[in-house]
């Protein structure tokens, strides 16, 4: 009745968007910062990607421009939080609005025209990168190399880390750049292969950044966990049409991923605590 | 020892440090550390010893002055720079990442210090160190699972792993048992004999005389004298440390206090029966502790840090739930009650950390008065409405009667010095006219005079009739003020002593496992 | 200088500098619109100074101000919920349900009941977030956000299902007797904001709330129940935001329609206004007026070909500028 293999395949693009953004955020949170601005960064990146690939005719330029725009927002975040010492929550939330506002202004300038898209090969490459390569790299860097110790020490106890001589600002700026790059890539990829298919429709690429923040928690700040959680949520996303066929109204089917994630968030921490996996102390402690 | 023909490893030249608030922590200090010697840096709390070694270790930057390592002028922008020049600081409270293993901590530090140790190489070096110095900590253990003594060993391993030529130890014996102290001192000597320069910070004169080749005395941010041990005289060192007229005043305070008389009442104000408490990582930290405390009595709880006193204290004040056992206060069973019930019963609480635990930083003293009295019957709160006028008056009264140096009750709690902060806290808790006062390390970090004033206040409160439970790491303090001392080791109460105390017996009991 | 006065003075300096700076940034950004910097500034200014803009802003002020003052309370306790959006929506849904399907007629009692039921609905939603936080340690930012999307789902389900009226996905409009005037709506929200301000300044919960955020351990030690404080804050926050939704329905919306993933946006703008208002309910009311005015200017700007999303970016720029300058100013004040 249901083609399971097709469903598993349909989940891949969604999972890729989540995996890119959530891994970027996980790395940053391991370094002791949490950037709530993901939603805005993804949105801005998608808008910039749209206009640049339309005007240059090159999806690659679009992709790069999207990444740069997101990285600029990440740097703005860094300026506020690191240089000024401003509150992380208000900075992140403002960046959400800034990103959505600017992204929409920019994206609308395409007039809804279909832009050239990345080819299947590039699509596959990004999927492999997000779901297979990055988690391995992140795992090796974070848990099997001393550079990972440097990063994680900031997420555990930044005061001690600074006293040990860890270069706090430099490490965090690097983490922010990684965050901005991956989130930007997520936004560009979302524009090309997401529900819109390389055409800008205002206010329809919402919710991806927020969900990625939730996925970081579901994956409990571990690269493998984060990618697994990304895939599961992507699968939920892909299953929405299926739910409608069994008689669930589309309005309800649309929100099932959110419903499932909120329930998962409620049960997950107890589960992970049993497995002795710890979130970074600076980010989350009960 | 004759240093004349040796070149100093580390020279501090005219070091001055003025903190942003205007506090002068170090004033024009010049000091040389030679290879092969142990230099004791002696002075009371607040004399500026920690600031000086923090400057030498690159943790803070001096306002003025110069640092020379082996004759070469250096500028430290980070502890990293100091470590690369062979300077290692072993801080009073170990600086390790709790959720890392010992090995992860050590590899991190060695890398930052410029040593190219991977995990395997670091392990090998640790084995060599164990052979040479007899120093071992399980490398795959998480730091949170270690005792204070083990953490300190891990800190010393750091210094050895980066092969530091200058080792700075800041009050290293604070949290150690007598046996551990002996081991530490002989290890220190071994380090010096290898040609390293060792700086040993202490506020205990006896310790300085026991360990050092030379003694440098600091008072109120200045270096007062440097004497070699063979020329050192105790009375002279005391004068250097405190100044003559202050010694006179202190003796006065202590004499007056000893003349106070009081009679322990019959009423039991605190009863703890077979208390079991889990620590933050799920293990039992308190294992079957029982005790009784009567009105007008001061009961000291002695023990080496990390033996369950903190968890015990947190359970007594109601912010940690016991797994088993019973606590009753003034005849009321409060085992499963929160801290608000204790407030209603009139329990005064003086926690270990002044900012963030006793006081809310960034808020005024008036606000902190209301919070302190929040659940007390004497709170300026009626039907959930705060009467700020009365609150301000209470705060002003506390400031006046305890001579808290502060512009007024609206001053930010953060802006007070340690001694003033603690006097305000004690004043606030005494305002409750408590039947029971629970205090943990109330004089830690205070200079001698401020500490004596706090002890004075506690004693007077006992005279008034309050039962006082005093958890302290300072055995001298406990012996000075307690009527009775119990010793806590590995979460159990292992020994009970009455006046006159036998200090050796108490110290021995502290290491019972 | 004492703590409170110093905070106010340096906060005010930061606020003024921040607002000036954001005007500068807006003009620079305006250069990239079709109008050019000068044209944009002109239209922006004339629109800002026109009375019509302010009057037409008031209906938006209602839900934004209710959200903002309630969120200011929550943020003071360190409870970073962003659930006001969903609470406003469900408040409107509850009020519609009670008036249209249960009571069926207007009048003071019915309207009051509808506003209250909107508040209770919001409190329920807020309490859920607080309960998840306190009971299971669920991050409130995420749970409240997911609940916002679920609220959108609920509205979309109702207007396309049981409550649908006619061929479009929307409900029947409320009859004229089931409504309130603009002045009443504004009054309700201002009174509620004032109540929250007094709640923080004069009740012991104000002390509890600040202590829980700034020094949780101190709060616990001296008898403040951290869990109960968070629950109280979560319930009250939801209640007030829900009221905002109810009033919004009765005054402006009158019917429910299907919603996009962006939601109505009032609850989100309330977040900005709450921070802009310095986490004080009264400050949040003032900030909400500014945000609402900007929001109502979007139609004017649209006439000149500037996308309405531009206003959203402007709002964020104002908050960021004010944040930057107040942070700097406060830091200077501490020295």
Could you walk me through the main structural features you see in this protein, from its secondary elements to its overall organization?
The complex is a heterotrimer of chains A (286), B (513) and C (335). Chain A is an all-alpha fold. Chain A has one domain: ABC transporter involved in vitamin B12 uptake, BtuC (Orthogonal Bundle), CATH 1.10.3470. Helices cover 77% and strands 0% of the residues of chain A. Chain B is 36% helix and 25% strand. The radius of gyration of chain B is 24 Å and the shape is globular. The radius of gyration of chain C is 20 Å and the shape is globular. Chains in contact: A-B, A-C, B-C. At the A-C interface, helix 4, helix 9 and helix 12 of A face helix 6, helix 11 and helix 13 of C.
Quick description:
The complex is a heterotrimer of chains A (286), B (513) and C (335). Chain B contains 17 helices and 22 strands. Chain B has helices spanning 49-56, 79-84, 102-112, 119-133, 148-161, 178-193, 205-211, 234-242, 244-258, 309-317, 339-345, 365-372, 388-401, 418-431, 448-464, 475-481, 503-510; strands at 10-18, 24-33, 38-42, 64-69, 72-74, 87-90, 166-170, 197-202, 214-219, 222-228, 268-278, 284-294, 298-302, 324-329, 332-333, 347-350, 381-382, 385-386, 436-440, 467-471, 484-489, 492-498.
